[in-house]
Every structure is written in C-alpha cells, then in structure tokens.
Amino acid sequence: MATALDLPPGDPLGAELDAFVAAHDLPARAAALDRAPAFPRAEFRAMGEAGWLGLTVPPERGGRGLPLATAGRLLYRLAYRAGTAFAKLALQPEFCSVLLEHGDATLQTEWGRPLVGGRRLVGNQLTEPGAGADAQALGATARRDGDDYLLDGTKSEAAFATDADAAIVYARVGEPPGGITAFLVPQEGPGIARRISPVDLGERWQRRGSVEYRAVRVPLRHRLGEEGAGFAYVRPELTRERALLAAIYLGVARASWEETVAHVGGRRAFGRPLSDQEAVAFPLVEDAARLDAAALYVAQTLDRLARGEEAEGEAASAKWLATEAALTALDHAIQFHGGRGYSSELPHERRWRDVRSGAIAHGPSEVMHVVAARRLWPRRPRAPT
Ligand SMILES: Cc1cc2nc3c(=O)[nH]c(=O)nc-3n(C[C@H](O)[C@H](O)[C@H](O)COP(=O)(O)OP(=O)(O)OC[C@H]3O[C@@H](n4cnc5c(N)ncnc54)[C@H](O)[C@@H]3O)c2cc1C
Fold first, then answer.
1. What is the pLDDT of residues 32-90, one digit of tens each?
2. What is the structure's pLDDT at 2?
3. Beta bridge partners of 81
4. For residue 132, pLDDT beyond 80
C-alpha cells in the first residue's frame, strides 16, 4: 500500500538508498547503538561519502541539492527501513544551515564541507538550563575582546555533547539584553567542559549532555552572520526540519504497523487469528487511516515549502500530528505483539522510545501549537522558535 510519502515507483534513488542500508546493515546497527550508545563515526563517514548527508544542501556546498519534498520521501524510506537514527543523522547538515548559509568561505572549507562529507561532526547548542522551549530567555553571553569574542554560559540537553568536533552556539552580544548571535565553536580548548547526561529514554546514540563555556576565545571570523541575527537565521531552518522530522516519524511507525498487521493475521489465540478480534483489528484500521492522513499532510507541507511558500505553522503542526499518529501506532504494535512487544527482542519498544523525543525536541508539541496558532491570530504574542 503506497502512502503520500513513498517515492514514485522505480525511482532510482530508492534503490540506491536500499542498497546502502543493506550494505551497512543499518537496522542492526541502529539496534546496537541503542544497547551501547555511541556516535556512529564509521556510518557517518560512509553516509557522507555516498551522498546521504545533506540531501537538500546545494551541490556547491557538497550536498545533493534535492528538493525538500524528495528529501522528505527519502528520509521516510530510510526511517521505514532502519528507524530514526540514520535518518536523523542524514539531516545533520540541514540542522547546521546557519553554518552552511552564514559561515565565511574559510569556515565552509574547514567545517561546512567536512560536515557534509561525514568527516567532522557539528552540533547545535541553543538550549540552556534556564532556557529551553522559551529560547528567548537564553543567557549565554559573548563579549567582544579585540579580534575575538569571550564566550560564557552553559548549554544543556545538547546532542553529541562530547562527540561533536564543533557546535553552533547561540549567545547574547552587546548591551543587555543583547542580540542573540550564532557562533561556530570548536569543542576542544581552554575553558570548555563537556559531560554526558544520564542515559536517555530513546535516541541514545545522540549522547546528549551539557557544555560549559568559561571565557572561551572565539575568533571574530567564527561568528555566523550578523550580530543579533541568530534567531532570524535559525527560524526557517526549524520550519524545514520540523516537516522533515515528521516524515521520519511516520516512516518508523509505518514499519511497525505493517509488521503488526502481518503478526496479528497469523498469531492464533482463542482458536482464531488475533485479527478476528475487533479489539485488535479496529485500532490497526484506525492507525492506517491516521498514518495515511498524516503522510498526506506532511507531503503537502513539504511540497509547499519546496515551492517556497510560507508554511511555518503547517510544519509545526506536521511534526505534532506525525508524532502523535506514530506514537499511537507504535503503542499498538507493542500491545499486539504481547510480551515480546514489550521487550527488546522486537524493535517496537525502541521505535516508540525514539519517536517519543519528537514531542519535545526541535520544539515541544505545545509550542508547535503556539507557532500554528499565530498563523490563525497573527496578533498573538510570538512564539520563541
Ligand atoms: C532527543 C533530544 C535531542 C535534543 N537535542 C538538542 C540539541 O542538539 N541542542 C539543543 O540546544 N537542544 C536539544 N534538545 C533540547 C530541546 O530542544 C529542549 O528540551 C526543548 O526545547 C524543551 O526545552 P526544555 O527541556 O528546557 O523544557 P522547558 O522549556 O522547561 O519545557 C518543559 C515542557 O513544558 C511545556 N511547555 C513549554 N513551553 C510551553 C508553552 N509556551 N505552552 C505550553 N506548554 C509549554 C512542554 O510540554 C515542554 O516539554 C534536545 C532534546 C531532545 C529530547
């Protein structure tokens, strides 16, 4: 059964992706990374070399330059085959658009190209202990000192806290309150202390944690774009990535839904297949409709963004809708596989844990509603992200 997020039949990109997934045994690697969390350097490198990092990044920056709608469909397929980990990893250059679009030529050579090539990992550090959903409350500062800035503050919740080679760090510059400004900060050096948080519910390979900056020297040329323009730069990125993440969550859920439909059709209990029980069949029927409807909405949002239309509210709603539909379907997959569904013998519990992050990361679901609501009532107070 095709969904709105499937690639057109026979699309050679689909076959190329499937061959890559098989050659690197990505489904098994994703399960292993959950059991023993680590950053998958070898796969990151292989993905860069094979062109699976930066699907939408223009060729002159080292990417494939694909339209957003095609990238969304590829990520849906990658997530369907191998879960969230490698699909999200594929997006790491897109998560670093502020570097790719606003870093100078030297930064592109030193960091941008190597990121898209899978040779250097660049993270993002916006969240702080006192500023998460309300990113406008962030308190890190960068003070000009000759040809450098001196960076002070603590970043928290960050993916790749000890694995990233550099991070895009947001800090306030100038007279208080100061304009929020993005910097590219290499992660080794005096004044930087990094640590990993206790193990996460899901997405464990991201090894989140915190990074402390104490009077860290950041050269002027590591400022990304203009002082005070950090939020203006990151906002369109957030819109694109929310729509792409929505496709990822739906791909994961689709895999579990198909596996569950097959399972309940064969598993016998009380003298007949489980699928003969309406209490089992009807939730799966509802999941099919919900997942298909969400896929249509996400595909429509990606198409609108690909055409250059304004769809910030739709992208926010797409992430919320896809996360909800996917979590419901994944919960049913756990339930209808019984005791094995609740164990790591099957992938459903891990998929649920990974997708559960979607209701918090890249903007909590409630904030997605705030973003969507301001499209309906433009005079409402602006959401932070
Ligand atoms: C897997 C994962 C990866 C992440 N990676 C990164 C990263 O690489 N870099 C980075 O900077 N951050 C990262 N984050 C952090 C993430 O962006 C924040 O956790 C998120 O923005 C919420 O901020 P907070 O944790 O401070 O929660 P808070 O801001 O304290 O919010 C807590 C909860 O309150 C509710 N809430 C908040 N605001 C509102 C509102 N206006 N209306 C109604 N309810 C509201 C929501 O339920 C929210 O989840 C990651 C998080 C996860 C889970």
1. 999 999 999 999 999 999 999 999 999 999 999 999 999 999 999 999 999 999 999 99
2. 86
3. none
4. yes
Provide the pLDDT confidence category of residue 147 given band limits of 50, 70 and 90.
Answer: very high
* Residue at token pair 């085959």: 81
Section 209-220 average pLDDT: 98
Give the single-character DSSP code of 112.
Answer: I
User: CATH code at 81?
Assistant: 1.10.540.10
Residues 131 and 39 in one domain: no
Is there a contact between 184 and 111 (Cβ–Cβ < 8 Å)?
yes
pLDDT at 378: 80
**CB burial string 308-339: b at 16+ within 10 A, e below:** eeebbbbbbbbbbbbbbbbbbbbbbbbebbee
Mean pLDDT of the chain: 96
Tell me which residue has its CA closest to atom 24 in ligand 1. Answer: 132
Q: Under DSSP, is residue 13 helix (H, G, I), strand (E, B) or coil?
A: helix
Q: How many Cβ atoms are within 10 Å of 162's Cβ, its own excluded?
A: 15
Tally of domains in the chain: 3
Its pTM stands at 0.97
Boundary residue ending a domain (86, 116, 146): 116
C-alpha 49 – ligand 1 centre gap (Å): 33
- For 221-283, strand residue ranges (E) read 223-224, 268-269, 272-273
pLDDT of residue 384: 52
Could you give the CA distance from residue 72 to residue 69 in angstroms, rounded to a whole number?
5
What is the 135 CA–ligand 1 centroid distance (Å)? 9
Residues 130-139 have a mean pLDDT of: 92
Give me the CATH number covering residue 317.
1.20.140.10
* 271 lies in the same domain as 369: yes
Q: Whose CA is nearest to atom 9 of ligand 1?
A: 158
**Count of CB atoms situated within 10 Å of the CB of 344:** 12
> What spacing in Å lies between the alpha carbon of 300 and ligand 1's midpoint?
26
